[in-house]
Amino acid sequence: FSDMASACSILYEEQVLCSICLGEFKEPVSTPCGHNFCKGCITQYWNSQDNAQCPLCKRRLGNKPELKVNTEFRDVVEHFNRMRVQGGPKIVAQPGEVPCDVCTKPKLKAHKTCLVCLASYCKPHLESHQNLKKHKLIDPVSNLEDRVCKKHDKMLELFCRTDQQCVCMMCLNDDHTGHEAVPLERAFKDWRGMYENMTLKMKKTEIFSFLSVKNIRCFVEKSRETTVDEIRETVQILTAFVASVQKYQGELVEAIEQKQKDIEKQAEDQTTLLEQGISGVRRLRCDIEQLMQSEDYLYLLQNYPFNVMSENTHLMDQPTDSILRMTQDIPDIGQQGHIEMVKKSVGQIEETLRNEMKMLIQKDELMKIQQCNAVDVTLDPYTASNWLKVSGDGKRLTFRGHQQIFSSFFGRPFKYLPYVLAKEGFSSGRFYYEVQVSNCKRWLVGVVKEYINREINSIPTPEDGAWILNTPRNMFLNQIQTIGVFVDYEEAKVSFYDVEARSEICTFTE
């Protein structure tokens, strides 16, 4: 079988391919000199010449002979084609793969593409085509028409650096006369170096982005763990605080109850003494009333209990208002002092906790604002007062100390006060920016509407279309290093922050 396949391969290569189109014979005809060609190929070849001759042996054939299809040779070709398809590897082109342009159905998968013939060949057809040494073969590609100049029908072999496009040789004498053109291979090498640098940068960016994503995820994970720990510790602290308050509550209630017991005992003792005194007074009063009923004066005077009267005068001399005062003071001694003390202590603790919680919430809120709403602000020198000097980058402002008169052709500056506006403006959304004021004894920072009067001669107010923070009105602001300004346009709110302390200074609404 191996010898037969080899013989078939030799026969196929030498005898069953047209030497003009290098493909399988279509309607094969034989010339008088004994060579075989496709009828269409030899006819087209002879039409391009004055005299008929054999393309292979160059024998002159005189007048163009009348050719007829060699039916026996055609049958032999078809027979060997069937043997080739059945005996060879059946690598049929699948959808998306480049098929062989020579094969009849089924078309085999192309192995190479010839840039000269503009055709793709499978391995069997490529064996005979490789005898054409000057033809350039590349890996199989489709859409070969894209590799041909549409204007000159020539291969695109050059790259015009002037117009940055692929051209053919004829284009250099036409639309690209005098342009710098190089072979495609050289242009590809130049571009490959640039692409390699680009891909290297892309790889670095990819690696950096990957590491950044990894770091962000690690940060989020650590932040989540830290948050869980903070929540747990916060709950523990507050729970311990509540337990401590409950403990002191129990002790305080117990102390109040003990105080009440002491008051009740004191009151009971006082009551007992008073009741005893009342009984003595009552008995004495009864004895005196009984004596007073007698008309025997001698007996009355001889039997009057002077000694008893002298011993019990303290009962009759006890002031009634002192007894009432003692009974009225009992509730105040037992309750009012503790209640006022508890109210004052709880109020102080509550205010401290509220302020601390507010500070923590404001810190988180400011961090979120800085991350999500920060914008870059640049000062506009054409709006600056003649008292002020704006740096070249628009980031620093200097007070001249004297007014410098100069004309402003590009903008309208503030006329009387040392103010300046920013270049940027906003009409929606949220934005946040920071201004460093640590080196300024007096400053004014804020947000104004676009129509602000630039001839104003006093500090502007919200009625003037300005929401500002300034040291003349708030002297304590001199200790602040950096002012943060946050504007929520839809909510109509302007807030000012102490960036270092991470606390809100004030907020304008509406």
Mass-distribution shape: elongated
Give the CATH class of one domain.
Mainly Beta
Under the CATH scheme, which architecture of one domain would be assigned? Sandwich
Q: How do the SSEs run, as a string of H and E?
A: HEEHHEEHEEEEHHHHHEEEEEEEE
Rounded to the nearest angstrom, the distance between the terminal CA atoms is 98 Å
Main pleated-sheet profile: 4 strands, antiparallel
Q: Which band does the percent of strand residues land in?
A: 5-15%
- Write the CATH fold name of one domain: Jelly Rolls
Strand segment count: 16
Provide a count of the helices.
9
Give a verbal description of the structure:
The protein has helices spanning 2-15, 39-47, 71-87, 123-129, 184-292, 297-303, 306-311, 313-317, 320-373; strands at 28-30, 36-38, 112-114, 119-121, 137-138, 158-160, 165-167, 181-183, 388-390, 397-399, 430-436, 444-448, 466-470, 482-488, 493-498, 503-509. It is an alpha+beta fold. Among the domains are: 1-88, Herpes Virus-1 (2-Layer Sandwich), CATH 3.30.40; 374-509, Sandwich (Jelly Rolls). It is elongated. Residues 18-58 form the RING-type domain.
